[in-house]
Amino acid sequence: MYNIFMKKIILLTFLLFNCCLLFAQTTAVVTRTVDGTTMSSSNDFFINASHSKNSSIFFQLVDTAGISQTFKSDALITVFAPDNQAFLKLDKAVLDTLLKPAHKQDLVKLLLSHVLTGKVTSKDIAKQINLNNGQAVLTTMANTKLIATIDANRNIVLTNENGNKSVISKFDILQKNGILDIVTSVLISKNTQP
User: Fold this and answer.
1) Residue 130 parent element (H or E)
2) What is the pLDDT of residues 105-119, one digit of tens each?
3) What is the mean pLDDT of residues 84-98?
């Protein structure tokens, strides 16, 4: 009787151990160096951006607009963050206008026009492009549309509803709460022109 009891205890322990292994999170932490900045997939967008020298303006604007919680939450998102050079290409008057309190909603819309709900990799976008006759329609958190295509150099190009184009220059940078892609231009809409 004692042997049967011990066998049951050993079997139960074995089953519990295997269940624990089955349900344990085994997500590996991925680090990637982007423009001299090491980003870790265990950090959210803001923690990684605080170390970044090349995408800091976008995340400073997110903070100014009061929508930083969107980028810190556990909800998965995909961010097409314009690099700092993209913001420097903008007419200074446009940025000055967006920073005025009266234009806060325009700033929020501009920033969220660079964000998708969910985790969307470059492979996902390329697959959609191939399945949809050379273009994929992506809906942003600002409820605007981005048309994704692949150019002759095999770059993924995003075009907004106003015809502004931006190339994804660095893609699939894993964050704790999604994916960061760096793009070469700000996808600004005509209604934000001063």
Assistant:
1) helix 122-131
2) 999 999 999 999 999
3) 92
